[in-house]
Amino acid sequence: MCAAKLPDPGIRPVADVDTGGRETLNPFHSAQMLIGNACRELGLPQAVYEYLKEPARVLIVSIPVRMDNGEIRTFIGYRSQHTDVIGPTKGGVRFHPQVDLDEVKALSMWMTIKCGVLGLPYGGAKGGVVCDPGQLSRRELEALARGYIRAIANMVGPEKDIPAPDVNTNPQVMGWMMDEYSKLRGFNAPGLVTGKPMILGGSAGRAEATGRGVVICAREAMRRLGRSLRGATAAVQGFGNVGSNAARFLYEEGAKVVGISDVRGGVYNPDGIDVYQALEWAREHGTVAGLPGTQPIGSADVLYLPVDVLIPAALENVITLENADRIQARVIVEAANGPTTPEAARRLTQRGIFQVPDILANAGGVTVSYFEWVQNLQNYYWPEEEVLEKLEQMMVNAFNAVYKVHQQRGVSMRRAAYMVAVKRLADAMQARGWI
User: Fold this and answer.
1) Closest CA relative to residue 286, chosen from 263, 256, 254, 318
2) Residue 34 contacts by C-beta under 8 Å, 6 or more apart in sequence?
3) For 296, phi and psi rounded to 5 degrees?
4) What string of pLDDT tens digits covers the 435 residues of the chain?
């Protein structure tokens, strides 16, 4: 890939970021570092990094909710919009006790890069509310979802910023948000959010899209190594929507899934786990722990199994310098956001472990969200076969684009993915006259 031909604003090029040997665990600082290093690799002027190093706007809101006992409780919510240089911003909303401003800002930046890698006409956004949904009744959860969308209504919309499900939110929460926004605007606005129930304008194939995209990337990575997924061994950390679907699609591709874990424990069987049985067991018991015919292992121990493909699909920063040398997988496909610290990623690269970064691997969800938004704007809906065909094409094209830069420039797949996305953003800045 050639560096962008940009006018020199007289500012020094971005310097490669050096942490001085300290591991970067703050997700916002990690995102800044990776974007800065991509700018440097491309030889871009400092102005590009200045536009990208911080979100364009961040809103912090307080959301009063009348609880079931009659008391008023106030929750803190966030919405970060990173850049709209390509188009409206796009990103999920998470409900979690650990949501904080740096996390939301970082996730909005990662969404920008993810959309850039896939060539989607979006910038990145992210939202969150500090709460524990497990402690809320259904009525309280609905009141919180509606209160959140009321609080951010002026900065979102089908042509501004399109929210979606994330951690602890789901199609029902999106349905409540869409309904509340429609009431405020006085007309039906299905394009406000994606990941909605099908009856409200959701897209076929959306629920499984992220897990499906992860397995497409795993298949393409193994192909580059001269291997097939059929007969390959695999382990999945995290058995929520993304992890469980990834495990299912691996199983259906003929891979031998030998390890699965969730927050309550893990299971291992070197001869392979029946993923359909694991899905049924998890539905009945709320965990894969105790699955008959398997050996119990710790939740984190699944990361260290000797497998061909490892899929971390749980939380950020689960692979660090402290445990990077214990990883035995040949290929890591990051289904979670930010599961590997930058320093650990470099160590894994040194050890010859092929990594498909999160901004490429888990982009199937936002890709089908884009399809949903397009269908909403057209008020014309596609059959699932068409959705899956388009997803396959876009994921493979994105993988090929990143792999080409990886080969031509001799950089990691992670850095190559950032370079693909940042180059596109820089070209848009130039076309708009920002730089």
Assistant:
1) 263
2) 113, 342, 414, 415, 418
3) -75, 140
4) 444 443 333 334 344 444 555 676 788 888 899 999 999 999 999 999 999 999 999 999 999 999 999 999 999 999 999 999 999 999 999 999 999 999 999 999 999 999 999 999 999 999 999 999 999 999 999 999 999 999 999 999 999 999 999 989 999 999 999 999 999 999 999 999 999 999 999 999 999 999 999 999 999 999 999 999 999 999 999 999 999 999 999 999 999 999 999 999 999 999 999 999 999 999 999 999 999 999 999 999 999 999 999 999 998 889 999 999 999 999 999 999 889 998 999 999 999 999 999 999 999 999 999 999 999 999 999 999 999 999 999 999 999 999 999 999 999 999 999 999 999 999 999 999 999
* Rounded Cα gap, residues 427 and 286, in angstroms: 47
Residues of the chain with CATH 3.40.50.10860: 51-188
Query: For residue 168, is it left (φ>0), alpha (ψ between -120 and 50) or beta?
Result: left
Supply 240's token pair. Answer: 């929520």
- What's the pTM? 0.90
Q: What is the dihedral sign for C-alpha 163, 168, 174, 180? A: negative
- Domain 209-356 architecture: 3-Layer(aba) Sandwich (3.40)
Q: Which of 90, 105, 114, 126 is catalytic?
A: 126
Superfamily of domain 51-188: Leucine Dehydrogenase, chain A, domain 1 (3.40.50.10860)
Considering the chain, tell me which residue range(s) the CATH 3.40.50.720 domain(s) occupy: 209-356
183 assigned to active site: no
Q: 24-46: string of b/e by CB count within 10 Å (b at 16+)?
A: beebbebbbbbbbbbbbbbebbb
